[in-house]
Specification:
The complex is a heterodimer of chains A (179) and B (157). Chain A contains eight helices and no strands. Chain A is mainly alpha-helical and 179 residues long. Chain A folds into two domains: 95 residues, Rna Polymerase Sigma Factor, Chain: A; 76 residues, Winged helix-like DNA-binding domain superfamily/Winged helix DNA-binding domain (Arc Repressor Mutant, subunit A). The chains are: A mainly alpha (179), B mainly alpha (157).
């Protein structure tokens, strides 16, 4: 059963033309790819499009991947490019000039608005790790597979991102935020 | 307010700001939408995996058994050099030394090649043959020549 196999085995089998293995990889990485896309694009549906297009490119170019254990970071790089292309096409690149609005999330007050605005001011790398961690409660292990960095490094990135957010929120009047 | 509580507050805020509904991958829809790309993937069915070889090499290099095998290969090469220096294996007719460019490092340090090199150029010829083989294998410390190594091993001045 493909569900029981580790990623690297699925990647090898997919590279040999096994469709089931590839779709299992897509299932495993979908949430992470949508999170990466959403960190770049404001639109949830576009983020899903970016993830699906990334899978399509991966299906075609999988033989170019040199190391099976680098599938996650390789796929994430494709997804970022797809998301940037889609965002560019829609003129919606989030480069800190507009607040990020998570579609489907009810506006439950001023604090939500300010937190989302604070998120939009984060550098791309920090914003991405926040989205990966909080989008779907992805485990450090899964984030590590996607970003190709250690869990310790992920923890460091998250802490730095949160400190920046806390600084921004303090400046916005949240005096209790003190990380 | 403690730091833990503050971080917890921020985590809750981030979850509210970032979290949407969990995205679920619909394989059937994707296969229909990207039928051409999926067919390209399926078209590779039966082809050998290109990950296998490099991963095997990496595993060999990482493992202690692999390191032992490499050490054994180095010792075997040294043994071949010594035999080539003192052995008297006759050279079969028509098996003269090939140009170095046409030989692999393994061929270059084979008994026949080393013996032929020794017959044609003596210890210096043997040294040159080994140097050429080592050059093809890649970077190495160039402070000690094979000749010096042999002298050291044999205890001759």
């Amino acid at each position: 059963m493909p569900e029981d196999k580790p990623d690297s085995v699925l990647v090898e089998q997919a590279a040999r033309g096994d469709g089931e293995s590839f779709t299992e990889l897509c299932r495993r990485y979908y949430a992470a790819m949508v999170a990466i896309g959403h960190a770049i694009i404001r639109d949830r549906h576009l983020a899903e499009d970016a993830a699906q297009q990334a899978f399509a490119k991966a299906a075609v170019h999988l033989p170019k991947l040199r190391r099976a254990d680098q599938f996650g970071p390789w796929l994430a790089a494709i997804c970022r490019n797809e998301a940037k292309d889609l965002a560019r096409a829609r003129r919606e690149l989030l480069m800190g000039d507009e607040p990020a609005v998570a579609e489907g999330v009810p506006d439950s007050g001023e604090s939500d608005k300010i937190v989302r605005e604070a998120l939009s001011h984060l550098p791309a790398e920090a914003k991405e790790v926040i989205y990966l961690r909080f989008y779907d409660g992805l485990s450090y292990d899964r984030i590590s597979a996607v970003l190709g960095i250690s869990e310790q490094a992920i923890n460091g990135r998250l802490r730095r991102a949160k400190k920046r957010l806390a600084q921004y929120l303090r400046r916005s009047g949240f005096d209790e935020v003190d990380l | 307010m403690s730091e833990h509580k503050n971080e917890e507050w921020l985590d809750q805020q981030l979850q509210r700001a970032v979290n949407g509904t969990t995205p679920v991958f619909d394989a059937q829809v994707w296969k229909q939408k990207y039928a051409r790309e999926f067919q390209t993937l399926l078209g590779r069915s039966g082809q050998p995996s290109r990950f296998g070889t490099s991963q095997t090499v990496r595993l060999v290099l990482r493992g202690s058994i692999g390191k032992l095998a490499i050490a054994a290969a180095v010792l075997a090469t040294a043994g071949v050099l010594l035999v080539g220096r003192f052995g008297s294996t006759p050279v079969p007719p028509g098996s003269g030394p090939q140009p170095a460019a046409q030989q692999s490092p393994a061929q270059m340090v084979s008994m026949i090649s080393l013996s032929a090199a020794f017959r044609s150029g003596g210890l210096e010829g043997l040294d040159k043959q080994c140097d050429r083989a080592l050059e093809r294998l890649g970077p190495r410390p160039n402070s000690v020549s094979i000749q010096e190594l042999l002298k050291d091993i044999n205890g001759k001045g």
